[in-house]
Structures are given as C-alpha cells and as structure tokens.
Amino acid sequence: MNTSLLVAYIIVFLLSAIPLFEAFVVVPVGIIGGMNFIMTLIIGILGNLVTLFLLIVLVDRIKKWYLERQKRKGNENSRKSQRAEQIWKKYGLPGLAFIGPFFVGSHFTALMALILGGSQKATFFWVTLSVIAWTVGLSILVLFGVDFMNLEDRQFLSRFIEE
Predict the structure, then answer these.
(1) What are residue 155's phi and psi, to 5 degrees?
(2) Total H helices, total E strands in the chain
(3) Residues near 65 by Cβ (< 8 Å), separated by ≥ 6?
(4) Given 38, 109, 115, 139, which residue has the most CB atoms within 10 angstroms?
(5) How far apart (Å, rounded) are the C-alpha atoms in residues 108 and 20?
C-alpha cells in the first residue's frame, strides 16, 4: 500500500470519528472516490465507534457538561432534545438508535439515549448496530448507484495517488 492511499484511509478514520461527519457519510464518499469498499467500510465504522465508545465511557462527565451548558443557554430542552425524547417515548432505545443518527448523528443520539435513561451497554449495542447498518446500507447503495450510472472516471482519488 503506498503512502498516499494510507493517508486516505487515515483521513477516512479521522473524519468518521468526528461527530456529525459520521461513517455513513464519509465511507460512501471514499467509495465514490475509488477506495476499496471493504477496507473503507471497516476503517470508517471503526473510526465512528472509537469516539462513540469514548463518549459512552465518559458519559457521566459529558452528561453533566451538556446539562449545565443547556441551563447556561437558557433552554432546558433544545429542539433536538425534544425530538429525541419524543422518539424515545414512542420507539424506545432501538428506535432512537436507528432514527437519531440520520438526523443528529450517532454521538448525540447516544448521549440523548443515556440522558433519557438507557444503560451504557444497551446504548452502545444499539447505536453500534445502527452505525453499522446505516454505513453498510448507504455504502452498498452508493456502490450500486455508481455502477448503475456506469461512471467510468469515478476514482477521483487516483489523481492524487502515485502509481
């Protein structure tokens, strides 16, 4: 593997780890760019899950910071929080885990699930399952969409990678 391709995979990992970028956004972009489907998928999901795991492990500190921040801003329940609470009441943890990432990202979804009473273990399980499902599903759609559209020059990364 050459250095430029290694850097591209590191970028996928790092961007997937950033809240709101999410693996299910970064991985399809990498696939469209011509990166290996399986490698990009695995690296993107791992990047997303590393920071998700850290968030869940450090939840007590983060929850305290988030709630104090909301009080300082003067809005006890933001619109995102209210939406998450409505989904929680209607569909429970699995519903929030699968619906939330699409609207607010997996990290905020996990935080809201924990604030609303989900256990750390169950939250990590359901949000991980959601991240994997969204990322695999959207990546497959992108892969087949690119093939269906018969795009010959879809590997825009090849312009930056030395052969």
Answers:
(1) -95, 70
(2) 7, 0
(3) none
(4) 109
(5) 9
The pTM score is: 0.77
Tokens of 60: 């007590």
Question: Could you report the per-residue pLDDT of 50-90, keeping only the tens digit for each?
Answer: 999 999 988 878 777 877 887 787 766 667 777 778 888 88
Q: How many CB atoms lie within 10 A of CB 1?
A: 9
- With the C-alpha atoms ordered 82, 109, 27, 146, is the resulting torsion angle positive or negative? negative
Cα–Cα distance for residue pair 143/70, rounded to 1 Å: 41
Residue 157, pLDDT above cutoff 70? no
**pLDDT tens across 87-102, in order?**
888 889 999 999 988 8
Residue 51 buriedness (CB in 10 A; 0-12 / 13-18 / 19+): middle
